[in-house]
């Protein structure tokens, strides 16, 4: 058993001082506010982890200064897009400079370089307090479109990278069959294409879950998956994710082909429900919002990517009021910082509506923790409570950004940045310690250098 005395922690009941938590087999076994420390526990300072990442203590307590919050869920990731950061803004950085660079990276990756890039990217995520990632994985095959000897070698590389980085992964194996409605895949898109919905489903059967890895499914979009294959993907078990109405052109093409909005098409094919996450949900009709709300679908917003690509601002609050559940993702990894994503949801609404006060810090933290974890198939993660997975994310409350901000939910959402994280525990294991950032930076540099070499 391990014990942590948290100087300050965000519990389901609110922020509390001096919280003693005990952890056994990766799960919280007790959570006590203001315990009688002297009577029961001997303080040992911050514990030194052993070489497996476990705090080296027995019958003693690790004292954790700062504000500790539950583990964050990054519900929408394309790991290889991390190689694009800073490189797609050339000239003035149009949508086309972005897409050209994205396809260039997709064309170059090998199982080895993809593994190294994903490992470094997932370590960056861990360093920013992310304890689960939803990987929307669509790069499946060799550059000429032929399957590898192991047709899931790239998916397995992602699962292994997450394991080594120390976070949980939900591999959302993505069906991608068309360049656009009625258009065959071309160029690098052949790496994404399984040929049919049934062939996609047969390949995905070869993936197995692990203690840190769940398998889910994704429909890339209504552009990339023909109508008759949508139901095949939706019929799989586990979390189901789909890019939805990110840009107006997608809505126009869908209406022209089917006479339905993308939301209406997904509804008609049985793809909307409580395990569905619609990603972006930017350009919606009133009927779309009501439909997604009635389905209780998760709405995964990725504000830093949506602003980078010039997508627009989706109706986050209206979706919430209709019954949808907000989650967050860093998507293209132009930024990996869920603190920035949380506050961007509120700040973007302010710009769009010319009014303040749509989302509270508490609600945004819930989106980034319990709701996000549940959307990825980890309903037993996201709060510091008995029986939950032991994830602990600790923020420095005296940094340049956080000092004097009240050390509460508002510090986390409206002041903190990813660089304020000092320690991360996932499933009871210490996976990030203060000072690890420098080494992770070098690893990213090396991995991205190899991709572009
Ligand atoms: Zn995406």
UniProtKB/TrEMBL annotation:
InterPro entries: Amidohydro-rel, HutF, Metal-dep_hydrolase_composite, Metal_Hydrolase, MTA/SAH_deaminase. SUPFAM superfamilies: Composite domain of metallo-dependent hydrolases (SSF51338), Metallo-dependent hydrolases (SSF51556). Transmembrane segments: none annotated. Keywords: Hydrolase. GO terms for molecular function: hydrolase activity, acting on carbon-nitrogen (but not peptide) bonds. Residues 69-431 form the Amidohydrolase-related domain. This is Formiminoglutamate deiminase.
């Amino acid at each position: 058993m391990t014990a942590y005395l948290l100087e300050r922690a965000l519990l389901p009941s609110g922020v509390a001082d001096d919280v003693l938590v005990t952890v056994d087999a990766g799960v919280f076994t007790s959570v006590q506010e203001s315990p009688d420390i002297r009577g029961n526990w001997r303080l040992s300072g911050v514990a030194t982890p052993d070489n497996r990442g476990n705090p080296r203590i027995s019958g003693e307590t690790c004292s954790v200064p700062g504000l500790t919050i539950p583990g964050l869920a990054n519900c929408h990731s394309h790991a290889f897009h991390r190689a694009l950061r800073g490189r797609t803004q050339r000239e003035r950085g149009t949508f086309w400079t972005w897409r050209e660079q994205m396809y260039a990276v997709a064309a170059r990756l090998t199982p080895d370089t993809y593994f190294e890039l994903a490992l470094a990217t997932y370590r960056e995520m861990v360093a920013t307090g992310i304890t689960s990632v939803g990987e929307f994985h669509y790069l499946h095959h060799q550059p000429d479109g032929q399957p590898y000897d192991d047709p899931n070698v790239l998916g397995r590389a992602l699962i292994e990278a997450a394991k080594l980085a120390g976070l949980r992964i939900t591999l959302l194996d993505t069906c991608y069959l068309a360049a656009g409605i009625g258009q065959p895949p071309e160029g690098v898109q052949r790496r994404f294409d399984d040929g049919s919905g049934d062939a996609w489903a047969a390949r995905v059967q070869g993936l197995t879950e692990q203690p840190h890895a769940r398998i889910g499914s994704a429909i890339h979009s209504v552009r990339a998956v023909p109508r008759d294959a949508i139901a095949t993907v939706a019929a799989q078990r586990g979390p189901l994710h789909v890019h939805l109405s990110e840009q107006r052109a997608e809505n126009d093409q869908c209406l022209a082909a089917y006479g339905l909005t993308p939301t209406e098409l997904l509804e008609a094919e049985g793809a909307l429900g409580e395990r569905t996450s619609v990603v972006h949900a930017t350009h919606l009709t009133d009927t779309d919002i009501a439909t997604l709300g009635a389905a209780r679908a998760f709405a995964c917003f990725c504000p830093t990517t949506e602003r980078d690509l010039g997508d627009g601002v989706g109706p986050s609050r209206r979706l919430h009021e209709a019954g949808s559940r907000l989650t967050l993702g860093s998507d293209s990894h132009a930024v990996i910082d869920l603190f920035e994503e949380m506050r961007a949801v509120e700040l973007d609404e302010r710009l769009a509506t010319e009014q303040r006060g749509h989302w509270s810090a508490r609600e945004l933290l819930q989106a980034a923790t319990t709701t996000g974890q549940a959307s990825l198939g980890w309903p037993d993660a996201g709060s510091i409570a008995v029986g939950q997975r032991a994830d602990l994310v600790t923020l420095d409350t005296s940094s340049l950004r956080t000092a004097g901000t009240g050390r509460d939910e508002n510090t986390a959402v409206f002041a903190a940045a990813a660089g304020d994280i000092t320690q991360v525990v996932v499933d009871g294991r210490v996976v990030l310690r203060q000072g690890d950032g420098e080494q992770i930076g070098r690893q990213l540099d090396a991995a991205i250098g190899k991709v572009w070499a």
